[in-house]
Design goal:
globular; 11% strand; two-stranded antiparallel sheet; single chain; Arc Repressor Mutant, subunit A; alpha/beta; disordered N terminus
């Protein structure tokens, strides 16, 4: 390759904006992004809102990972600015804040998804991949906050049957994967059985966790049985 040759453009949507003021978290997220296939040169890091705004003025970003508690302001204000600039941008909040008010404020501002920093690297990676594929990942803990605000249906009487969520909560593929999980198959086994990639299986399982408001395979199986999704 000649010295003047341009670097190869990654297949993944780029560039990426990372707005985070804590160095250890910056390093952790950069590592995760590199594991996803990003070159560090396509990831721009800002530790303050002022820095983030300068970067946004200079270029258009395909994805933004945004913390909320920043030294010079609240990340929700910046999310609203990003959404106004680009209605199609993926914006994932990765924050330690878990109050209901903050969660709803971020989602109303235009965040695509919301994840807590306490989640492990795999969960963070799957959430980022979900956003890149057009999904809207919501941390299970946060989903419970949101669902708690929804009006509950009233029973028709003392003899009314217990409310069970319709099986349509999962797509056909998600229901198929949940059944294979219940059979004790690993992600690799499921991928081979369905002839899809292991990463696709992981993404589906993340969606299943989010929809069932669980955080493990065992809990997903139990919840699936309670909701009538598994025999």
């Amino acid at each position: 390759m000649s010295k003047n040759a341009l670097p190869a453009t990654p297949i993944l949507p780029s560039p990426v904006l990372l707005v985070e003021d804590e160095s250890p978290i910056q390093e952790r997220l950069l590592k995760i992004m590199c594991e996803l296939g990003y070159s560090p040169g396509f990831i721009h890091v800002a530790g303050t809102l002022a820095e983030a705004r300068r970067l946004v003025e200079a270029r258009r970003f395909a994805l933004a990972l945004v913390d909320l508690g920043l030294p010079d302001g609240h990340g929700c204000d910046f999310i609203a600015e990003l959404r106004q600039r680009d209605t199609s941008m993926g914006i994932l909040v990765i924050s330690a804040w878990s109050t209901q008010e903050t969660i709803l404020r971020a989602l109303h501002a235009g965040a695509t998804g919301y994840l807590l920093k306490e989640r492990d690297d795999l969960e963070v990676m799957l959430s980022i991949r979900s956003v890149l594929r057009g999904g809207a990942p919501i941390d299970p803990f946060i989903a419970r906050h949101i669902l708690a605000e929804l009006p509950q249906a009233k029973d028709d009487g003392p003899d009314a049957a217990p409310r069970v969520q319709a099986p349509s909560i999962l797509t056909t593929r998600e229901a198929q994967i949940l059944a294979l999980v219940a059979d004790g198959k690993s992600n690799r086994d499921i991928a081979e059985h369905l002839q899809i990639s292991r990463y696709t299986v992981e993404c589906h399982i993340t969606h299943i966790y989010r929809k069932l408001e669980v955080s493990s395979r065992t809990k997903a199986i139990n919840e699936g049985r309670l909701r009538g999704l598994l025999q």
